[in-house]
Amino acid sequence: MTQMKANALVVEDDRSWQQILTEILTDCDLEVTGTNNLDDAIFELKARPHRLAIVDLSLSPNDHNNFDGLRVLDAVRKLDPGCRTILLTGFATVELAVTALTDYGAFTFLRKESFNRGQFRELISRVLASAPPPGLPRQVEAANQEPAGRFKSQSEPARQEAIRGKALVVEDDAGWRSIIEELLTDAGYQVRVCASYGDGLGYLRRERISLAVVDLLLNGSISNLWNQRIPSENMEGYQLLASTRASNVPTIVVSGVASPEDIKRAYAEQSIFAYLEKQAFDRSSFLKLVEEAARYQSAGSELSILTDREREVFDLLAQGMTNKEIAEKLVITTNTVKRHLKSVFEKLDVHTRSAAAAKAVTKQ
């Protein structure tokens, strides 16, 4: 008995793109239906279940105010919740991209200008290998942000003139790579992006990285399986944290698969700077963490001239301990504490305990 093909829906108003996507999906052994507007897409979603839908953000030619693609995503989650969705577009704000991924449950977000057939085929394989979404995502308010000519953040201040250094993004999902790269670029970083443990490790060894943003799970074929506990030692991104820690690179984890135990372990063993869940990703919170990490890195560079023992004494001083208390804590004499503090003051070019403690505040 011949097995029926899974259905795929292409919602795209550009005939050329619709033809390209239909051809690729057909080669992936999917039964493809193409539509070019919201009403026809809703009709198809009501008519039969789909395994996959590729949706363009704007379904009106040259109209950047048209966000019918988001309405299609909303219709999918209500009418065909077992269907995976991929947003493919030529323009979108950071807010819209994050909304599509988190609130509307899109599997990923792709830019047309960087579309690659081979990578798209691999993505389709990942989608077909993953489990369907478990029920309906939370209710979403209608999106009515103004568009940008290119994928960029409108509400951010003008891009900083001074480059803060290099930021490394290690993320196997193209949509999330685009979002994080754009935000870090606006924050003043030169951004290096990669999708694998090997590439990330190579950047850490070749270049001086000031900040790292890492997804814990990089082997994408299983990264979107639902309700599956994946040990942290099997996560390539988690393994990379040991290298960022050894290189003293503040690292923000942006991931959606870790358990509370994995998160605690990442803080305790790998000294990550922060952890953000993709499902609750907020652009403002991310940028705030980036600012804090930049201050931490700056202070850390200054404090790196201290010896290990001097740093121990310095940290206890910053906690408000007296010389006697520091001596008891470290099991050394008060004269030894004074000698270490004298060296600390000289290296940090300060003359009082309060001035030295202020140095510690800047790294928090």
Mind sketching the topology for me?
Blueprint: E1 6-11, H1 15-27, E2 30-35, H2 38-47, E3 52-55, H3 68-79, E4 84-89, H4 94-102, E5 108-111, H5 117-129, E6 165-170, H6 174-186, E7 189-194, H7 197-206, E8 209-214, H8 236-246, E9 251-255, H9 260-270, E10 274-277, H10 283-303, H11 308-318, H12 323-330, H13 334-348, H14 353-361
Parallel strand pairs: 1-2, 1-3, 3-4, 4-5, 6-7, 6-8, 8-9, 9-10
- What is the number of beta strands? 10
Shape: elongated
* Low-pLDDT ranges: 135-162, 221-227
Our measurement of the CA-to-CA distance between the termini, rounded to an integer number of angstroms, reads 65 Å
Strand order, largest beta sheet: 2-1-3-4-5
Q: Report the C-alpha radius of gyration, rounded.
A: 25 Å
CATH homologous superfamily placement of the largest domain: Response regulator
Beta fraction: 5-15%
Secondary-structure class: alpha/beta
Task: Estimate nothing, just give the exact number of structural domains.
Answer: 3
As a percent range, the share of helical residues equals 40-55%
Order of helices and strands: EHEHEHEHEHEHEHEHEHEHHHHH
What is the name of the CATH architecture of the largest domain? 3-Layer(aba) Sandwich
Query: CATH first level of the largest domain: which class?
Result: Alpha Beta
- Helix count from the secondary structure assignment: 14
The CATH topology of the largest domain is Rossmann fold
Q: What characterizes the major β-sheet?
A: 5 strands, parallel
Average pLDDT confidence is: 81
Structure description:
Helix 2 packs parallel to helix 3, helix 4 (94-102) runs antiparallel to helix 6 (174-186) and helix 12 packs across helix 13 (334-348). This protein has three domains: 6-129, 3-Layer(aba) Sandwich (Rossmann fold); 165-296, 3-Layer(aba) Sandwich (Rossmann fold), CATH 3.40.50.2300; 308-361, Winged helix-like DNA-binding domain superfamily/Winged helix DNA-binding domain (Arc Repressor Mutant, subunit A), CATH 1.10.10.10. 46% of the residues lie in helices and 15% in strands. The model is unreliable at 135-162 and 221-227 (pLDDT under 50). It is built from 14 helices and ten strands. It is elongated and about 80 Å long.
